[in-house]
């Protein structure tokens, strides 16, 4: 069984590297709040532990002599190397780059959620079409019967009564009644068949 780092190990390693929590979080590709939580956790997750181990192996050699006397020139060189390394890590030019696509994963999750919501909305609209198809078929049958009898008054009465009874949120029925009010709607009209919406 693999023994993972604990939160206190992570905090101790960060202190040895003389990194702030924000810098360490940037190195690991996680948020500052997550690092605070991990440092208090009894055990780290596998990915965070691996990223921390990798970071310690890559950054620690430059900080190996933390307790030794350091000249100002060495201190400036070390600081320059750390800043350059931090810039490389932020740019993604490191072995930690595969662990950084948190934003890509989040963006993909948001995109999938939006696609799922669009599919649900289309499914709901198609379900509404089924209900409205039945009503349109009934109205269309009544209007055809009135036309077959040659009773234009009955035709106009049906259109007027359905217009009064139909609420505007029943879009398809409303469109059909509006079209039928100006002229008889042919049987093959998409206003009657209401083809399903496809994604």
- Integer average pLDDT: 75
Total number of helices: 9
Shape: rod-shaped
* Radius of gyration, taken over Cα atoms and rounded to an integer in Å: 34 Å
Uncertain parts: 63-68, 93-101
Number of domains: 2
By DSSP, the count of extended strands is 0
Range of helix content: over 70%
Explained architecture:
- This protein folds into two domains: 7-100, no CATH class; 105-193.
- It is 70% helix and 0% strand.
- It contains nine helices and no strands.
- It is rod-shaped.
- Mean pLDDT is 75; it is low at 63-68 and 93-101.
In short:
This protein has 199 residues and is mainly alpha-helical. The protein is 70% helix and 0% strand.
Please describe the topology of this protein.
Elements: H1 7-17, H2 21-28, H3 32-40, H4 46-59, H5 72-91, H6 102-149, H7 152-165, H8 171-182, H9 190-193
Helix pairs in contact: 1-3, 2-3, 6-7, 7-8
List keywords for this structure.
mainly alpha, 9 helices
